[in-house]
Each structure stands twice: as C-alpha cells, then as structure tokens.
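User: Round two. Same drill as before: sequence, then structure, for each protein.

Assistant: Same drill it is. First protein:
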Amino acid sequence: MVDAGGGESVRISLFIACLHVLLFVLLSMRVVLYRFRKRIGIGEGADRELHKRIRVHANFAEYVPLALLLLMLLEAAGVGECWIWGYGLTLLVARVLHALGLGRSSATSLPRFLGALTTFVLLLAMALHGLLHWHGIGWAGA
C-alpha cells in the first residue's frame, strides 16, 4: 500500500508479514512432507505426530492473520515505527516459541505456554493501542 503522498505506509508490517509467511510455509511443509513420507492423504490416519504437526500449523493460521491485520492497520493509522517493530517481532518470537513447544510435545511446555501467553497479551496490547490511538489519546511515541 502506498499513501496519497507516494510514501510507503505499511512497509514495516509488510516485512513482518513476509517473515510470518516464511514461517507458515515451513510449518506447512512439515505437515506435507510428513504426510508424503507416511502416505497419509487426508486426515491424520491415527498418527499422533501428524496430529501434532497439523495443530502447530493450524494454531499459527488461527492467530497470526488477525495479528498481522491489526499490525498493518496500526501502521497505516500512523502508530510509531518503534511500536510496529516491537509488536511485529514480538509476534514472530511468540509464534516460534509456540511452534517449538507444541512441536516437541503435545503436553504442556514452557515455550508453548510463553508463546501462547505472549500472543494473547500482544493481541490485547495492539487492540488497546489502536483504540487509544483512534480516540486520540495515543501512547508515548504513537
């Protein structure tokens, strides 16, 4: 997207989104290659490892699009670059932690917990930041 003045209005969130897409493709390939190796076409075939890989991929797909949309909207609304970088990179770290934690074990793990908690807190923080920015209150540097 380009703003009316010809400048880049969402260049940071574009970069952050591209990094998330690379992670999404990696998670997708883990499912696809495992399916191919085990010859499981549809469903999980009662394979616990495949189920785990599908959940890692699906969980990413459930949370990341909304977070990236909100990130892009915050940037387009003029929220400061430091906030956009902070939110975007924190999301990436949170999703990597969650994928590593859940990918290793279906049981509770510290990386999985920290990834999920950080994602939820980040979504709430971005929503609050957006509401305050919309209302004209803003946060420092916003």
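Second protein:
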Amino acid sequence: MGLLDAILGRTKPPQANLDDLFAVPQAVVSLGTIGFLPTGSGSVCFRDVEGVSDDAIVEEATRVIGVDSTASVTTTDDGHGFRWLTVARAGGDATSLVTDLHAVNSSLADGGFGASLLCSTIGLTTPASGPAALVYLYKQGTFYPFVPLAGGRRDNTAELQVRGVVDADLPVEPRLERWLALWDAPGLTV
C-alpha cells in the first residue's frame, strides 16, 4: 500500500495464502473434541470463465487428483454463475483432501484465474449428524464455520463454538458479516 492509499483511506485486502489450507487437518483434530467429524469431502468454488482455458486447468487438476483411486471428483454449476469442483475421499481423510483442494486452487491461481476463486469448503458433520463446513475465503485469507439447519436457518451457536475451537489453529474471519451462507453448496444441503 502506498502513501496516497494510506492518506485516502484505501486498503488492499490481504492476499490469500493457499498454504493456510494445510492447517485444516489440525483444526479437524481439534473439532473432533466437540463431536464435529470430517466427511472426507470438500469443494473449490470459482467463477466459471467463458471459454476453454479454465476448463483445461480444471480437467488437468481433476486428472491429477483422480490418479489416486480413493478420490472421486465431480463438478457442478450453481445458479449464480459459480462452478463447484468437489473432491470426496474415503474415510474422512482430511490431509489428502486438503492436498487435493490446494492442487486445484494452485492450478487455477497459477493459470491466471486466481481472481475467479471464491472459496473452498471442508465438509464436516455435526454431533447431531447434520452438515457443516469450514469455509476458506480467498479474498480475505480467513476461515469461518457454516452450519446450516432445515428451513433456511443457521446454527449460530454451533458456528460460534466452532470458531472458539479452531481459532488457535486457523486464521478465523473476525467480521461475522463475512460469514456467508452457502445454501445448497455441495455437501451442505439439509
């Protein structure tokens, strides 16, 4: 940030550190102490760019992930113009899942599509076996929990509990208004 930016009150958002994802397995261990367990599923959400250039990058990343027969990869498009690439690993393997998601994120960023990245999700189940996720916001470089309930509601108490548990493991988004609801995201439908 330059002097003129400081005088005019402009700030630059922090650069996303994709390596922050590698702290997730420790956070998952911490969450296990309160009954939140990994599903082995996670997603990368990005704005789909017209044309084939980002498709080639996604196809290559999918092929690399698919080399290991314990992973499955699917892509879906939502009604907001975003594409979700979902990776599922057997047995709730958070470490391998994070490596897979990092590979997709890095491939897109290295291919010039870093500005198209919206978020990554790490799927969890709540103690009551409902869906939950840790969400990584690329533009902020922070995580937040999302715990959907039936009827378009959120379990704010559980989200705050998760924040308290993972705060020592992950950079948690301090501004609650940035904790966006990811209704109908892969793996988070109630």
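The mean pLDDT is 88.

User: Perfect.
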